[in-house]
Write a structure and sequence with these properties.
single chain, alpha+beta, 6-stranded antiparallel sheet
Length: 166
């Protein structure tokens, strides 16, 4: 029950911070919804704040149109690649393939961190920009974004304007 309340609190905070006018396309809405769902799934799979943070980022990344074609095993492969890439030096490429996790969709991709920086208003938070390529069912998509790491180790999505890069 306590874990469920934490998850509900996280979702409430995320929904409360949304700028509805920024969601100018179905893909953007899918990204937000994917982030919320990813946070819940990440919390259940990874447990705790770190799992939730990774889930939010992965959910946002795969919440776009092509991400909807990924099954649960593909999503886990992507989350693991993302987690691995965020631990490595900037520029490291981490490839993932859903088939290694038992998926039969043929989905695969790569997650790359591209720049280091810090949050402009919370300078003790390390930030990274990333590039995520997803190939699924004959379609490809590239998503880019920015994520910052909180003091507890969890990662969360931010706008590019919130980050100062080295």
């Amino acid at each position: 029950m306590k874990k469920t309340m934490k998850v509900i609190s996280i979702i409430t905070l995320m929904l409360g911070s949304l700028n509805v006018f920024a969601l100018d396309s179905k893909s953007d809405a899918g990204t937000v919804i994917g982030g919320v769902v990813g946070g819940v799934v990440g919390n259940q799979i990874g447990g705790g704040v770190i799992g939730t943070g990774i889930g939010i980022i992965a959910g946002a990344v795969i919440g776009s149109s092509i991400g909807k074609s990924l099954d649960r095993m593909d999503q886990q492969a992507l989350q693991d690649a993302q987690r691995d890439a965020l631990r490595r030096p900037v520029g490291s490429v981490v490839e993932w393939d859903g088939a290694r996790y038992g998926s039969r969709t043929g989905s695969y991709g790569r997650f790359t961190t591209t720049r280091n920086g810090y949050h402009r208003s919370r300078q003790n938070e390390t930030c990274r920009s990333y590039r995520n390529e997803i190939h699924s069912r004959g379609r490809s998509e590239v998503r880019t974004g920015n994520t910052c790491q909180r003091y507890d180790g969890s990662w969360y999505e931010v706008r590019n304007s919130e980050v100062a890069y080295y």
